[in-house]
From TrEMBL:
Species classification: Eukaryota, Fungi, Dikarya, Ascomycota, Pezizomycotina
Record-linked Pfam families: MFS_1
Sorted UniProt keywords: Membrane, Transmembrane, Transmembrane helix
Entry's transmembrane regions: 34-53, 60-81, 101-123, 135-161, 167-187, 271-293, 305-328, 340-359, 365-387
Name this protein carries in UniProt: Major facilitator superfamily (MFS) profile domain-containing protein
InterPro entries: MFS, MFS_dom, MFS_trans_sf, Proton-linked_MCT
Domain Major facilitator superfamily (MFS) profile as annotated: residue spans: 168-400
Cell compartment(s), UniProt: Membrane
Superkingdom, taxonomy of origin: Eukaryota
Bilayer topology annotation: Multi-pass membrane protein
GO CC annotations, alphabetized: membrane
Amino acid sequence: MGKLSAQQNSIEDFNGLAQHTGHSASLGIRERAISTYAFFLYFTGAQTGPIFYAYPVRFLVVTGSIGIVASVFLFSVSKGLPPNVSIIAVTPKVNAFLELYQYLLSFGVLGGISASLLFNPSISAVGHWFYRKRALATGVACTAGGIGGVVFPLIILYIAPRLGFGWALRIVSLVNVAAGITTSCLLRKRLPPNKKAGASVDFKSLSEPRFASTALATFLIEFAVFISYTYICSHAIHAGLDRRTAYLSNVLLNTGAVPGRALPGYIADRFGSFNTMCITALACVATILALWYTAGTNTAQVISFAPLFGFWSGAAISLTPVCIGQVCRTEDYGKRSGTAFFLASFGTLIGVPIAGVILEKNNGSYNGLIIFAGVLYLAALVAFIVARGLSTGWRLTVLF
């Protein structure tokens, strides 16, 4: 199961890979590939729900494993046309377009869909086996995302200079093969197949205020979290760090994410998922606006932001499914979760490109982008507070 959650960190991995291979100047390629990946990760999750309930989980896991291996391999051979190709006039713009569509198809589309076939069934399977400790179990499963986000970039960092970028990615692909086989053998769901489960998107559920506010909070927090994940490396370079150190800031972010995804689950089982989510969202607002925004060219401040934000933002991945489960009946969880993440997928699709436009309009200054991310997190915090209030009242002492 660890491998499944790790696929989500391909978003951060791709960001670091772009820095390592010299694509950092072309932010548009990264933005579109990352936002496309994140979109399909959540959008496809809404479609896989009925399949998960109707068929053995191995059907999704094997398909997703094959797809993610193919995605990484195809990404390793993605490139523009050589200048001696006579079919078309190869210009820098043409090559940039060719690279973009190859990255979009291999990483964004195939990678996002395949990761969704792995990630979403694994999280759903956790819900089958755990009730009282569901938040902790989900958090532990999601720690693999941080572990993968540490291991995969380090493979690239140390293998690429020796064997080349393509072969480094192919080694990552081999790791995926081994993990996929292991997962296919181990992952099981508790409940028998139910081919009458129906669709995983139910827009009528949005008429219920407490679910609608939770869905809005999920939309906003997923909108916000990928902005910081995407731009942390390029901001470090902008602040004056060398490329190697900037690339390692992504590793530090994921190092912080390992306890940041497990510990909130442990706390949530004791003090409430919404209470924990509100605290972590508030900490993210403070970390972004008080630390990242004021960092400037202060190397220590730039580097320290990565693990701190990785820690506090971990709940955005591990606790949102648990929060959704708290505002609906167990038998409705599949549809409610599918609806919430279906809507959140559009936030991930537009969030990173909008941040890129803000960066461009500010002539390369990251201040506007950072404020944008902080305000989105603040809005998500307000939405979680409203959802909590509508569910249990407005007393601070309520454990929810």
